Amino acid sequence: MAVYRITRFAASDMDKVSEATENMRDVLAGIGADFIDLVSYGNGKGVVIAKYPDQATMEAASEAAKKAFADIIEAGIVDGDSVHPHVGEVINTF
Fold first, then answer.
1. What is the rounded CA–CA span in Å between residue 4 and residue 7?
2. Judging by beta carbons within 10 Å of its beta carbon (0-12, 13-18, 19+), is residue 42 exposed, middle or buried?
3. Domain extent at residue 65
4. Residue 56: in which H helix or E strand, if any?
5. Which residue, 83, 87, 65, is CA-closest to 11?
6. For the segment 22-68, what is each residue's pLDDT rounded down to a tens digit?
C-alpha cells in the first residue's frame, strides 16, 4: 500500500526553495518516490508531498530526505523550526 511523507515548512522566498530543490533533483529522483511535489500555498508557507510505493521504500529514503531539508535549512532558505513532517498510509483512493 502506498505511503506519503507530507512535510510543512516556512520560507521567506519560495523561488529560493524551488532553486535549491532543483539543484537536488538528481539525488531526490533516485530515492524511490513515485513523486515528490513542492507546493507553495502563499504567505511563505509550503508543503512537500512525497508518495512512496511502500513503507520500506520510504524508510530507505528517510536519510536523503532529512539531508535535503538540512541543507536548505543550513543555507538559511527554510526556517528550521517550521519543518513538520507527517507520515500516512493510503486508506482509500477515488
1. 10
2. exposed
3. 3-89
4. helix 55-74
5. 83
6. 998 888 888 999 999 999 999 999 999 999 999 999 999 999 888 88
Q: The domain spanning residue 80 has which CATH number?
A: 3.30.70.100
**Cβ–Cβ under 8 Å, residues 65 and 27:** no
Instruction: Give the pairing of strands 45-52 and 84-89.
Output: unpaired
Is position 94 within any domain? no
- Amino acid at position 86, single letter: H
Chain-centroid distance of CA 13 in Å reads: 16
- pTM, to two decimals: 0.90
Angle at 79 (CA atoms; ends 9, 64), nearest 5 degrees:
65
